[in-house]
Amino acid sequence: MSEQNTAPRTASPPVVGILGAGRAGTAFARTLLAADVGVDICSTRPPKALQHHLKIYAPGAEPVAPEQIAERTRRNGPGIVILAVPQEELDEVDPAWIGESILIDATNTWTYSGEREPLPGWLEAAVTEQLPSSMAIAGHFSPARTVKALNHIAHSDLDDAAGRDLPMTQRRALAVAADDDQARGLVMGLLVRMGFDPVSLGPLAAGRVMEPDGPLFNRPLRREDLLPYAR
Ligand SMILES: NC(=O)c1ccc[n+]([C@@H]2O[C@H](COP(=O)([O-])OP(=O)(O)OC[C@H]3O[C@@H](n4cnc5c(N)ncnc54)[C@H](OP(=O)(O)O)[C@@H]3O)[C@@H](O)[C@H]2O)c1
To answer: How far out from the chain centre does Cα 216 lie?
Structure first.
């Protein structure tokens, strides 16, 4: 047997896919890459056209075509894709790209000068009824398993707030809501690796408090601040 064949095999690092390479998507990418998690990322631009942008905002992230966003994540990890595309563009995101992967819904419904961003019809109906937007997103992107997370921290806070070297008690706490226990657990593990203290609020419906008009939005919180909102 050759030396090459007897050498111990090192496992490839896990890979996470990110849909959207804007402010949020590239900030998630930087935090993941700093935690030794590989990143595949896409936008409306072809991979080649994204290269320069990524060199500046998320060096090390791999530009891919949207339909390839989940491929490597399933080979090298639990198959997690982060949705970081504005909600008004969600009709342009094909659920087939995500398939049965875990989908971290990091999106928010934005209101500009009193006017809500124009939403796809399936999302507009839910938001008008004051349902959490992630519930409509979970239905639209089924069979993906949706986990609401990472939407309530600003892109400009992510790099500094990630405390990979800190004990859990000193880390910034981030809320997680999901109907699927296994998916929620895997996403919480990812957030720990990124340097946060994840707190489960329970089902997706409990994630309403994570939205822009809710009490958790863009606040530097600790575990004890989040626990009262857990169901
Ligand atoms: N900004 C934050 O601090 C923050 C934090 C947490 C969560 N969020 C949420 O994340 C979402 C994105 O916010 P953002 O601030 O990152 O927006 P942004 O800076 O405008 O970036 C949006 C990105 O989505 C891409 N995109 C649009 N349509 C797409 C499609 N069909 N397929 C693939 N990519 C597509 C855009 O591609 P192109 O570059 O090719 O146009 C762009 O890269 C929003 O819902 C926001 O509420 C934002």
So the answer is: 17
Judged by DSSP in three states, 217 sits in coil
d(CA 16, CA 39): 5
Report the separation in Å between the CA atom of 180 and the middle of ligand 1, taken as the mean of its atom positions: 25
Q: Which of 148, 158, 198, 156 is nearest to 174 (CA)?
A: 198
Pocket probe for ligand 1: among 39, 42, 44, 218, the residue whose CB has the most ligand atoms within 8 Å is 44
Provide the mean pLDDT of the chain: 94
Provide the token pair at 37.
């998690």
Which residues, 6+ apart, have CB-to-CB distance to 22 below 8 Å? 43, 84, 86
d(CA 93, CA 34): 27
Average pLDDT value for residue range 77-101 = 96
Distance of alpha carbon 127 from the chain centroid: 20
Coil vs helix vs strand at 103 = strand
pLDDT above 50 for 104: yes
Give residue 53 CA to ligand 1 midpoint distance, Å.
Answer: 14
- Beta bridge partners, 81, equal 17, 103
Question: Rounded to the nearest 5°, which phi and psi values hold at 96?
Answer: -65, -25
Domains, the chain, in order of start with CATH, read 13-229 (3.40.50.720)
